[in-house]
Amino acid sequence: MDYANRKRPPQRKPRSANKGKKQAPQRQVPWGIVVLAIILVIALIAGLRFIAGGNPEAPLQSTQDVPASTPEMQAEPMPEKPEERWQYIEELENLEVEVDVPERELGPPKLMQCGSFRQRADAERLKAAIAMQGLESEIYPSNGGTWYRVVLGPYETKRAAEADRHTLQRASIHGCQIWNWNL
């Protein structure tokens, strides 16, 4: 359908029940709302002046009315600032702090497994990628020689294992898991 060349429908004349009477007068201005709006504006202005601390009845003082200071009005100079004395420095110089640090319990050694493969060639490929990052890994056959695990470690702490895992993640070697294993 062509909307651009479409003809407009013919205009209907409004039906009027009162054909001979005058039309309804225009709507009158709601004076109650106008008066309420004026009162609210005046209240807002008065509230702002009250918040600002200004007194609308008080005349503004000019800066020219302030007399210049006379010698009688000048006060004596302030005394010098006393030197502060810190007592805690002298008190803490000779004190020692004793802290009881319990021995860290080392759990079982941690091993990090980075892959488990059916083909030894796949395990060798991962071992070579790990070696390129400067880490040493071992391939352990498991399940009767049908699976080959690529394992790093043993680590004494989990923190050391996490550090190596982050090194491997930066080299896009993901999926390494840290376990409490003994071989």
TrEMBL record:
GO BP terms, alphabetized: cell division
Keyword match Lipid biosynthesis: no
Record carries keyword Transmembrane: yes
Source taxon at top rank: Bacteria
Transmembrane region(s): 29-52
Keyword vocabulary terms for this entry: Cell cycle, Cell division, Membrane, Transmembrane, Transmembrane helix
A Pfam entry, by short name: SPOR
SUPFAM superfamilies, per database record: Sporulation related repeat (SSF110997)
Molecular functions per Gene Ontology: peptidoglycan binding
Sequence segments annotated as region (Disordered): 1-24, 59-80
Residue intervals of the SPOR domain: 104-181
Entries under PANTHER family matching the protein: CELL DIVISION PROTEIN DEDD-RELATED (PTHR38687), CELL DIVISION PROTEIN FTSN (PTHR38687:SF2)
Name of this chain's protein: Cell division protein FtsN
Species of the source: Pseudidiomarina homiensis
